[in-house]
Every structure is written in structure tokens, then in C-alpha cells.
Amino acid sequence: MKELKDRIRRDGIVKAGNVLKVDSFLNHQMDIKLFEAIGREFKRRFADAEVNKILTIEASGIGIACVVAQSFDVPVVFAKKTQTKNIAGEVYTTKVESFTHGRIYDIIVSKKFLGKGDKVLLIDDFLANGKALEGLVQLVEDSGAELVGAGIVIEKGFQVGGDALRFKGIRIESLAIVDSMDEETGTIVFRGDEQDEQ
Ligand code: 5GP
């Protein structure tokens, strides 16, 4: 998605530890016009699929998921991060290892909001090592809902998550795949850069 890649090139900041900072337009301050374009693009890419629910994870997935959900005209559920032990039986829960914080936390979704009959599209801002997405996939599987696929705004293609999840047969549509980035120069190379793509 050219508009997104141009924006990342203009406003993204490459930080130490393979972190791309996009907090001026994606996950702190949020550019809603860009989000709307992202929503339309996901709708176009998943036009063949029947989606009746969007699932994301707090916190930074929620804003994007809400705008994307308008394109699909479906509700959004977000998995909550929790430290609560011994959660009672009314939630689906699994563990996720955080890329940005290096911690392990539990995520939960109420059984009221995910289950058989749901056709779920996962949405998240980043795909790095894939742990967040794997956790969401697990919740969908546990609930008996159908997983349609995942829409990712920025995939870091040099990290293992995308390949690992695609290898499992999960359909992943990433709007910008970063193949490499350089903290010193700030250079960001996207997959498909050499093609004259839209
Ligand atoms: P994963 O579980 O795929 O390793 O990491 C996904 C989560 O980590 C995303 O939901 C996102 O919040 C965060 N994340 C991973 N890499 C980056 C990055 O380069 N920049 C930012 N801002 N967040 C990231």
C-alpha cells in the first residue's frame, strides 16, 4: 500500500532493537484518514471472505481495528491483557510473550463475545515474532470460531512471525512489509520496493 509506505518513510523512526517507531500516525497519535484508507484496503483484500467479527489485542490494535471494522460493518472485540490469576471459566485465555517489553502476559476474551458461527478477521498494527497473533489465533481456535485470516498494518519481514504463521496455513495480508531497516541511516527497505506498485 503505497500511501502507507510513503508515510512510514516520511515519519517512521528506526530505533535500536529492531523497533520501528510510528507513534506520530499509527499507535499513539492516530491519523484517521490513513486508518480509513487502511480499512478500505483490508476490505478489498478480504473481499472474497465472509467476515462477521474483528478481533484485535489491546492497546495499539484497537484504534485501527475500529476503523477497519467500519469498512466491514462488523463489531470489534479486543483481547484484554491481564495479570489476574485463576480466571474463572467464562473467558478464553492464553499466554503471550511481548516483543516490545519482553514479558509474558495473559490475554483474555469473554466467551460471550467469541464462539461458533463467528468468522473472524484478526487485525494488528505490527507483526514481528508473531507471538501476539499466535495468541489471538489460539483464542479463536479455543472458541470454535472460524479464522478467516489476519490483516497486519506493518510486518517486519526480517523477523520470524509472518513466515511461521503462513507456514501454519494462516492467511496474512500485510500492507507494508519491511525487509530491512537501519538505525544509523534511518533507511527502511520494503518488500516490493523495486516494483512500480500501488
Ligand atoms: P510480535 O508478537 O509479533 O513479536 O509483536 C507484535 C506486537 O509488538 C505488536 O502488537 C506491537 O504492538 C509490538 N511491536 C512489535 N514490533 C514493533 C515495532 O517495531 N514497533 C512498534 N511500535 N511496535 C512493535
Q: What percent of residues adopt helix (DSSP H or I)?
A: 25-40%
Seen as an oligomer or otherwise, the chain set is single chain
Extract low-pLDDT stretches. Answer: none
Give the number of DSSP strands.
10
Shape: globular
| Bound molecule kinds, no repeats | guanosine-5'-monophosphate
Strand order of the largest sheet: 5-6-4-3-7-8-9-10
Described by strand count, sense and barrel closure, the largest sheet is: 8 strands, mixed
What distance lies between the first and last C-alpha atoms, to the nearest angstrom? Answer: 6 Å
Structural class: alpha/beta
How much of the sequence lies in strands comes to 25-35%
Number of H- or I-type helical stretches: 5
> What is the average per-residue confidence, as pLDDT, rounded to a whole number?
94
Along the chain, the helix and strand elements come as HEEHEHEEEEHEHEE
Radius of gyration: 16 Å
